Amino acid sequence: NNNNNNNNNNYNYNSNNNNNNNCNCNCKKEVTTTTKVTTTTVPTTTTVITTTTDFDDLCSERYKAASGDWTKCAYTMHAHMSVNDRYCKCTEEFENDLEDCKDSAIGPLVGRVRENMRTTNGIVCNPGDDTELTKEQRCAIAYTPATSEYSICQTEKYNDRDHYCDCQKTYLDQVEDCVDDPGVGSSVKQVQDSYDNYCDKEDDEETEKNTPTCGEGREPKADLPSDCSGDTDECCQDLPICGEGFAPNSGLVDCVGQDFTEGGDAELKEHCCTAEKEDLDEEDCTEAYVKASGAYYKCTAAADGMEMGSTGDNIGSNVHPKCECFEDYVSAVEHCRDDPTWAASINAMINGMNQAAWMSDCRTATCDAFACDAGTHLKDDAHDIECEGKTDGGKAHCDPKTDQATCCEDGAPRARCTTFACSGDYIPKSNRFTILCKGDICTEDDDAETCCDKAKCPGTITMDYGAKQGTCDKGGSIVVAATTACWDEPDCDSMTKCFSREACKHHDMTDECHDELKVCRIKPGGTIYQHTTSGSHVEETRPCVDNPDADYETACED
């Protein structure tokens, strides 16, 4: 075993040497053939190998292959793990693959991987009681998984203050070692400042402490004692049971405990319950975009969320999101492609995916969202035109140069309906981003019917409390309840009556305001309220009284 001066060695491995890899080396200066002779006896097996490749060269080749496998593992395998755990798992597999090469020339390189991860990335695998980590290393271990978890947590609920605050508190606890970190400390500080300003309020904590947590189907009483803390009859009351298709109205003493599942007083039920509407306006675009982005992030971060590239994808051994992640994203935000805030981001995402060669495995790449050169515009029905770009491997995708002629034509781009303002009795159509006007400017004569639908009740529904307007017009819950219940009524007469009925029975409506309320429709372009002063003369136009622009007036019934 000490004849190490010759480059070519013959190894005689004996299977009875307790796996110690002891070798008898018969050194030769030249070997031109490779033979393998196996002699088997019972109970001993002897294998004699003669090769032209020496042990160091063999391990060097295996080291290169194992290094490539480590890279693929770190970026494509064990996606459900944190970055720290994934790197450690891949390193363990790397070391096991090269276990018998530790005594070769590349042996020190194998052992150096863990130390490099510790000193360079702050990643420590299996830290024991005898491993003293620096604050920087503890930060490196905690930051990435905490940030990923925080990003996902934020998108799980929309417009929920308590949930956001819980996400921030959990994140800040996890990255406490990163507060002063020169690399990520500023990011942590931003979350800390947000939490301090938005969540950590003593008055909010006091309010929460004094509000009891009532069980399902119950609500806090309006006159509850100041020391309430549990679901007791002194602190909580039963909501009305309205049955399928109806939601209970809260805060109504005469509705407490009422059960309408078997019918009952129809007038009382109308007072205590609100019919649920299934086909409300499409989801708010900010909410839709936040949810869709969060769902896309979670989808691609899942264990099976990324897929290896294949021949022709032009991404080598890198990975791409699985098809379902992208398709679900597009479906969720399709109605927001003309949104003034989110349209640019959404269409850039779709355009980028259409240009990706791997997307041809998911769906046909089309000219939808293609970015045409200046002086040209998308052809009609661009979303139905297939791109003709091909990779070297034959995969179809939208190539910015090749498909310029496929997707675009000369001339100023046809204007989209997003640039047209509907007027009179008309309201904008849905998905206006995908609808093109006749020319490069949308006009009333050519494009009104293309871009707009006739409204069921054009104009606006308004509530007039007369001299009590300042006292009674609190907006908020009454307007929201009426709009939710009445938005889909078939005409102005039905809609104003519905608004009046819902407002008059609302639990926030006082007797004083009830007697003053009038509901009417203001015609498109009409004046809702006008106050004019000329010297000592004051002229006032109320919304529903003596207003030439108002009609369909109705009031609360006695």
Strand content: 5-15%
β-strand number: 21
Largest sheet: 4 strands, antiparallel
Summarize the amount of helix as a percent range: 25-40%
What distance lies between the first and last C-alpha atoms, to the nearest angstrom?
Answer: 109 Å
Average pLDDT number: 75
Shape label? extended
Strand order of the largest sheet: 2-1-4-3
Radius of gyration: 36 Å
Low-pLDDT regions: 1-42, 44-52, 202-209, 278-282
Structural class: alpha+beta
What is the number of helical segments per DSSP (H or I, 4+ residues)?
A: 17
Tell me briefly what this model is.
This protein has 558 residues and is α+β, with helices and mostly antiparallel strands. It contains 17 helices and 21 strands.
Helix/strand layout:
Blueprint: E1 11-14, E2 23-25, E3 35-40, E4 45-50, H1 55-76, H2 83-97, H3 107-121, H4 135-156, H5 161-174, H6 185-198, H7 202-210, E5 218-220, E6 236-238, E7 246-248, H8 266-272, E8 273-275, H9 285-301, E9 306-308, E10 319-321, H10 323-333, H11 343-355, E11 376-378, E12 389-390, E13 396-397, H12 404-407, E14 408-410, E15 426-428, H13 444-451, E16 452-454, E17 460-464, H14 469-472, H15 476-486, H16 492-504, H17 511-516, E18 518-522, E19 530-534, E20 537-541, E21 550-555
Antiparallel strand pairs: 1-2, 1-4, 3-4, 5-6, 7-8, 9-10, 11-14, 12-13, 15-16, 17-18, 18-21, 19-20
Helix pairs in contact: 1-2, 2-3, 4-5, 4-9, 5-6, 9-10, 15-16
